Amino acid sequence: MLPPEKNTTAYGQEMDGEAVNVAFPNMLNDGPGNWREIHPAKLASYCDDQDIKLYTYKHTNLEYPENPFTPGDYVIKPDYADPDLAVILEVAEDNDEDREITIAFCKHLKEEFDGEEYVPPADLSSRCEEAGIKSYSYEHSELSFEHQY
User: Fold this and answer.
1) Cβ 100 vs Cβ 67: under 8 Å
2) How far apart are CA 77 and CA 133, in angstroms?
3) SS3 of residue 115 by DSSP
4) CA 17 to CA 119: how far, in whole Å?
5) DSSP letters along 50-96, please?
6) What tens digit of pLDDT does each residue of 7-39 get?
7) Is 16 exposed, middle or buried (0-12, 13-18, 19+ CB in 10 A)?
8) Which terminus has fewer CB within 10 Å in the chain: N or C?
9) Cα–Cα distance between 66 and 85 in angstroms, integer?
10) pLDDT recorded at residue 14
11) Is 125 helix (H, G, I), strand (E, B) or coil?
């Protein structure tokens, strides 16, 4: 069985040093809540509870992607003295070198969405556009993950 998307980032947990169970972000996003706020130690249980399909790969058949980000990921721009938390709205195609990642700052989302708990990643970009929330574009190398668990 093939994974749900070609060339996509996957999140996984190592098993016995030989195999890795992998869940893909687009499948995790279909769950009832924001899986990015679940501690990695509990993520496998969440996948089981929500009937999210896990794929098993040999660890030697996996490699880290050059641009690991996907819409909905929490990031910061670490070169700022006091970086604000942001969420990824869009990830440009590989051939778009100047503007690879589009983000919106979480504080602006909370203000505009009146404290709404969770907006599914598939809806983030359009909801921000409708609400007039300013977005910013950066190269993926300028951003780093900021886990929220």
Assistant:
1) yes
2) 18
3) coil
4) 36
5) TT---EEEEGGG----SS---TT-EEE-TTSSSPPPEEEEEE--TT-
6) 455 555 544 557 888 999 989 998 888 999 999
7) exposed
8) N
9) 22
10) 46
11) helix
